[in-house]
Amino acid sequence: MDMKRARVLVVEDEKIMSTFIMGNLRRLGILDLFAAENGAAAWRDLATIKPDLILTDIHMEPMGGIEFVKELRACADSRLANIPVIFLSADSSAATVGETLPLGVAGYIVKPPNLKALGAKIEQALKGYQTTIFD
Amino acid sequence: MTSSPPTYLDVELALSQIGDVEAMNGMMVMLQEALVHDIPAIADHLQVGDIASANRLLHGIKGFVPIFCQDAFCSRVVQVEAMSKDSQSTTVTAAYTELRPELDQLLADVTAYLASAGQSV
């Protein structure tokens, strides 16, 4: 899928970071953008938005990114359950990265995302690649 | 002769990462609002021993300072945020007491930038 035609859901509770990520996605030519302020809000709106890709933070209240993606992967609707996910977090600890790996992660980017790396990771994710490497 | 205080805000770095001045100025306003709230709030949380709440705010700051600041300062924020995950309250409070003047200076830098850009709030 052409990155510029993708519908992307950004799940981020920090206003500055959400604005930064959305701005960078627009710079990459991705204009079909939705935002949710935590995993619970994303989960609530997921079936309506039907994103092609999800970029999510990890540490959020009341539902964090890992819990949200666990719910997503367990979803009965396979179109939703298989949406590629890229984690974006300031937490680069091995323990947290390790927790994301069984979730079919398409990428793990340490904040703030570098525009070039973000674009490359999104292209890979939309082609269906999974990774065990974080940028 | 008096020396200028160190400047923590790197406008060129922020512009290179954000892409255009208008968007950057909008984010500077958000940064100012966040720092005005978070700097004293972290101290308040630490004063009552609520390390978890202090950690949440430090974690947020750790995420966004690399957009606006050089690595050396970001590293100090990372250190204090890491301490707030698993160190005792007195240790974290001491580390934050050292970091706070730098955060205050960053806020002063942002406020001065916004005033010069006609964006003060």
CATH 4th-level superfamily of chain A: Response regulator
User: What is the domain total for the residues of chain A?
Assistant: 1
> What is the average per-residue confidence, as pLDDT of chain A, rounded to a whole number?
92
What would the CATH topology of chain A be?
A: Rossmann fold
- Which CATH class of chain A? Alpha Beta
Number of domains of chain B: 1
Q: Give me the strand/helix succession of chain A.
A: EHEHEHHEHEH
Return Rg of chain B in Å. 15 Å
Runs of chain B in which pLDDT lies below 50 for 5 or more consecutive residues are none
Q: Would you report the number of β strands of chain B?
A: 0
- Assembly state (oligomeric): heterodimer
Helical run tally of chain B:
5
Question: Please, how many helices of chain A?
Answer: 6
Approximate shape of chain B: elongated
Using brief descriptors, characterize the structure shown:
heterodimer, A: alpha/beta, Rossmann fold, 6 helices, 41% helix, 19% strand, globular, B: 121 residues, 5 helices, 0% strand, elongated
Task: Summarize the topology.
The complex is a heterodimer of chains A (135) and B (121).
Chain A (H helix, E strand, L loop, with lengths): L6 E5 L3 H13 L4 E5 L2 H11 L3 E4 L8 H9 L4 H4 L3 E5 L4 H7 L4 E6 L4 H12 L9
Helix pairs in contact in A: 2-3
Chain B lengths: L10 H8 L2 H27 L3 H18 L2 H16 L2 H28 L5
Helix pairs in contact in B: 2-3, 2-5, 3-4, 4-5
